[in-house]
């Protein structure tokens, strides 16, 4: 009897002094989304991956006045293309897409997970956005407007939930106008081991009748490393009418 009591007492003592972390239940595991990804579309991906194709893109639910502006821009671009005199775009000026355009591809993305941050890099122009984890969002007046805005996020189970503000008004996705108060919410989630979704909800009461939801799907590129993409020695430029032109350097005679 004494021996049994001694063993029980020793076991209880060991449990009492065991490391706290060892006695706590394991936290839910964060999915591994690190690596290179390519947006699925145009037949990309195998049959199993294409089964996770996202919903078709929707038109921006713009209010009447912003819609007129948007439609006028689109019509002007079509007419210029028909004349063989395309209008200058961000590509002409070596300007990156910014948010949310950079998430639309078509160039590959690299995602890096580190302590307190998820970093997303797009191959085109080596665009970088940083999602700061488990931090409060700043007040809009405290954010310097930029191409990518200020992004904070948190893991909710297997979904990375991201909130982005502070994208400057000159940065446009699909030529759609937005106000300084635009807010971009994302839900980034693995739908299959090699298929990632980014459900983007754009909120902008000054411009939109309701939130605009866009979903992009990406397939994993396990053996791909992003290439250096720097916009240098660009031969394209905009003339005085805003039309895209190309400089042709002729060799000296």
Keywords for this entry:
253 residues; 9-stranded mixed β-barrel; 4 helices; 28% strand; single chain; two-stranded antiparallel ribbon; alpha+beta
Structure commentary:
The protein has a nine-stranded mixed beta barrel. It has helices at residues 2-16, 20-23, 47-50, 64-82; strands at residues 35-39, 109-114, 117-122, 127-133, 150-156, 159-165, 183-192, 195-203, 212-220, 236-238, 244-246. The protein is 17% helix and 28% strand.
Summarize the structure.
The chain is of the alpha+beta class. 17% of the residues lie in helices and 28% in strands.
Instruction: Tell me the distance between the termini.
Output: 108 Å
Structural shape? globular
Class computed from helices, strands and strand pairing: alpha+beta
Q: Strand order of the main beta sheet, please?
A: 1-2-3-4-5-6-7-8-9
In total, how many domains does the architecture comprise? Answer: 1
Summarize model confidence as the mean pLDDT. 85
Helical run tally: 4
The number of E-state strands comes to: 11
What are the secondary-structure elements, in order, as H or E? HHEHHEEEEEEEEEE
The percentage helix is: 10-25%
């Amino acid at each position: 009897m004494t021996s049994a009591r001694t063993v029980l007492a020793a076991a209880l003592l060991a449990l009492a002094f065991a490391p706290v972390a060892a006695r706590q239940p394991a936290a839910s595991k964060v999915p591994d989304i690190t690596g290179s990804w390519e947006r699925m579309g145009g037949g990309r991906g195998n049959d199993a991956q294409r089964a996770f194709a996202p919903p078709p893109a929707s038109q921006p639910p713009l209010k009447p006045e912003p819609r007129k502006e948007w439609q006028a821009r689109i019509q002007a671009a079509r007419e210029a293309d028909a004349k063989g005199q395309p209008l200058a775009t961000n590509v002409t000026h070596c300007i990156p897409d910014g948010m949310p355009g950079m998430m639309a591809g078509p160039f590959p993305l690299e995602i890096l997970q580190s302590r307190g941050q998820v970093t997303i890099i797009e191959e085109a122009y080596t665009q970088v956005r940083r999602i700061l984890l488990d931090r409060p969002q700043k007040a809009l007046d405290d954010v310097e407007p930029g191409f990518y805005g200020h992004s904070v996020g948190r893991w909710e189970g297997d979904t990375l939930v991201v909130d982005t503000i502070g994208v400057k008004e000159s940065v446009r996705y699909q030529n759609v106008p937005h106000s300084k108060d635009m807010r971009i919410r994302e839900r980034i989630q693995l739908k299959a081991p090699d298929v990632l979704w980014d459900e983007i909800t754009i909120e902008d009461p000054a411009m939109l009748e309701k939130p605009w939801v866009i979903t992009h799907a990406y397939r994993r590129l396990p053996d791909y490393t992003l290439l250096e993409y720097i916009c240098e020695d660009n031969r394209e430029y905009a003339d005085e009418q805003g039309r895209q032109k190309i400089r042709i350097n002729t060799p000296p005679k």
